[in-house]
Design brief:
Blueprint lengths: L1 H13 L1 H4 L4 H17 L13 H6 L3 H31 L15 H19 L1 H15 L3 H19 L7 H8 L5 H24 L17 H27 L4 H19 L5 H8 L2 H19 L2 H12 L3 H11 L5 H11 L8 H12 L9 H10 L3 H7 L1 H21 L2
C-alpha cells in the first residue's frame, strides 16, 4: 500500500501540468499517507546494518521515533534552502542582480549568447540553477525585446545553469543533497565534475552559436540605475555571494553542518545590511519572498522517499538493479535520461538510499551528481530551471523538444564521455 501511494503521488508530481495539480499537493499528501500507514498498521521496519544507521535498529519498534529521525535528516536540507533563499531575497531587494546588467553589454547576438551562457554557468554554481535562471530571465526581458530570440537564449540559459549547478555543492538541490548526505566532498566534487560540466556548457553553446537565429547585431540598453543604487547593488551582491561561498569552507575547515553555515551567513548578511543601510524591514520582507511551495515540496518528497527506505523497498530495488544492469555506469547514464522526464529530486533521494553502501567520494556519486543535473536539460520539464522558465516565459514543450533538446543531449553525452575516460587521464 505504501508503494502504491508513492507511485500514484509520483505520477501526479510528474504530470502536474496535465492534471493541473500543483506538485506540492501530492508531495505533502503522499508523505503523510505513507507514514500514517506505517504507523497505523505497524508495518515492520527493514533492518539494515550500516554504521551510520545503527540508531534505526534501536528505534525500529517505534515508527513515530523513526519518523522523527527522518524528519531531522530532511530538515538539514530544508533549513539550508531557507537560508540560501533568504540571502538571495536580500540581494534582489537591493537590486544586486540588476547592477550586473552592464556585464551583458555587447553588439552581436553570438557574443551575447556566449556571455549569457558563461554568466548562467558561473552564477548557478553560487546561487543554484533555479535562482540563476530566474535572475537571467528577468535580465533577458529587459535586454531582448524580440520574444522569439529570447526563447533561444533561454534554452541555452537552462542548459548552462543546470551544467553550472552540478559541480558546486550549493549549485543544485540534488548536488546539495549528495553533499549534505556525506556522499561527496566539496574538493572532490569540483575536481571530478567541473571539467565535464564545462564541456557540457561549451559544446552546447558552440553548437547553438552556429544557428541562424544568432546571426546579426543586437541593441542592448545600458544600466539605468542611479550611481548610488548601482554601487549598493554591487556591494550587496558581492557580500551575498561571498557569504554563500563560505558555507562549504565552514564545513571543510570547522566541520559544522551546511545548514548551520548557511544560517550563520544569513545572520551576518542581515546584520550588515540593517546596520549599513539602517533598514528595519529586513527579516519580515525577506521571509515574504521565500518560496514556501518549493520548501514544502522538498519536505514531502524527502519524507515520502524515507518511508520507502524504512520498509526496505529501496534496498530491494537496488539489489535488483545491481543484478540486472552490468555496471553502475550504465545505471547512472539511464538515471540521467530518466531525470529529463521526471523530477530529479526524488530520483536522487532514492538513489542515495538505494546505493548507500557505496563509500564517500565513490565515482558513482560524482556520476549521479552530473547526470541528475545536466540530464534534466534534455526535456523542458526535467529540471526546476526548465519548469521555471516554462511558466515564466510560456515556453512550449514541443518547441523546446524540437529546437533545444538535441543540443542538450549532445552536451550531456559530451560530459558523460569525459567522466568515463577521466581515469585514463589520471594515470
Amino acid at each position: 500500500m505504501v508503494i502504491l501511494i508513492f507511485i500514484f503521488g509520483y505520477l501526479l508530481i510528474t504530470l502536474e501540468n496535465f492534471f493541473s495539480v500543483n506538485k506540492v499537493i501530492p508531495s505533502i499528501l503522499m508523505a503523510v499517507i505513507c507514514w500514517s500507514l506505517i504507523i497505523f498498521l505497524n508495518i515492520p521496519v527493514y533492518e539494515y546494518e550500516l554504521d551510520q544507521h545503527l540508531i534505526l535498529m534501536i528505534l525500529k519498534k517505534n515508527p513515530k521515533s523513526l519518523l522523527l529521525f527522518h524528519l531531522g535528516k530532511a530538515s538539514e536540507i530544508i533549513f539550508f534552502l531557507i537560508g540560501a533563499m533568504s540571502i538571495i531575497a536580500v540581494i534582489e531587494k537591493y537590486s544586486g542582480f540588476e547592477a550586473i546588467k552592464d556585464v551583458f553589454y555587447t553588439n552581436t547576438k553570438r557574443r551575447f549568447l556566449w556571455i549569457i551562457s558563461i554568466v548562467s554557468f558561473l552564477l548557478s554554481a553560487i546561487i543554484d540553477n533555479l535562482t540563476a535562471t530566474m535572475v537571467l530571465i528577468s535580465i533577458l526581458r529587459k535586454t531582448i525585446s524580440n520574444y522569439k530570440d529570447r526563447l533561444y537564449y533561454l534554452g541555452l540559459v537552462i542548459i548552462s545553469a543546470n551544467a553550472g549547478g552540478v559541480w558546486s555543492p550549493i549549485g543544485d538541490i540534488t548536488t546539495t543533497m549528495l553533499w549534505i548526505s556525506n556522499k561527496v566532498t566539496t574538493i572532490s566534487l569540483i575536481k571530478k565534475i567541473f571539467i565535464p560540466s564545462v564541456l557540457c556548457m561549451i559544446i552546447s553553446t558552440l553548437i547553438a552559436s552556429y544557428m541562424p537565429i544568432f546571426d546579426g547585431y543586437i541593441q542592448i540598453k545600458k544600466n539605468d540605475l542611479s550611481k548610488y543604487c548601482r554601487n549598493r547593488g554591487f556591494f550587496i551582491l558581492k557580500l551575498g555571494l561571498f557569504l554563500m561561498f563560505l558555507v562549504p569552507v565552514f564545513k571543510t575547515i570547522i566541520g559544522i553542518p551546511p545548514y548551520m553555515g548557511m544560517m550563520f551567513s544569513l545572520g551576518i548578511m542581515l546584520i550588515v545590511v540593517s546596520k549599513k543601510y539602517r533598514s528595519a524591514f529586513i527579516l519580515d520582507d525577506v521571509l515574504k519572498t521565500v518560496d514556501i511551495s518549493s520548501i514544502l515540496f522538498f519536505l514531502g518528497v524527502l519524507l515520502s522517499v524515507s518511508s520507502l527506505e524504512s520498509i526496505g523497498s529501496l534496498y530491494s530495488l537496488s539489489h535488483w538493479i545491481n543484478e540486472t544492469v552490468p555496471t553502475w555506469k550504465i545505471t547512472t547514464f539511464l538515471f540521467g535520461l530518466i531525470s529529463s522526464i521526471i523530477d530529479n529530486v526524488p530520483l536522487v533521494a532514492a538513489t542515495i538510499t538505494m546505493f548507500s553502501d557505496y563509500p564517500l567520494n565513490h565515482d558513482l556519486w560524482h556520476f549521479i551528481a552530473y547526470v541528475s543535473g545536466t540530464g534534466g536539460s534534455i526535456f523542458l520539464i526535467g529540471s526546476a530551471a526548465g519548469v521555471s522558465a516554462m511558466s515564466m516565459e510560456k515556453i512550449d514543450f514541443f518547441w523546446y523538444l524540437k529546437k533545444i533538446s538535441w543540443i542538450a543531449l549532445i552536451g550531456y553525452i559530451s560530459g558523460f564521455i569525459y567522466l568515463l575516460i577521466y581515469p585514463f587521464f589520471s594515470l
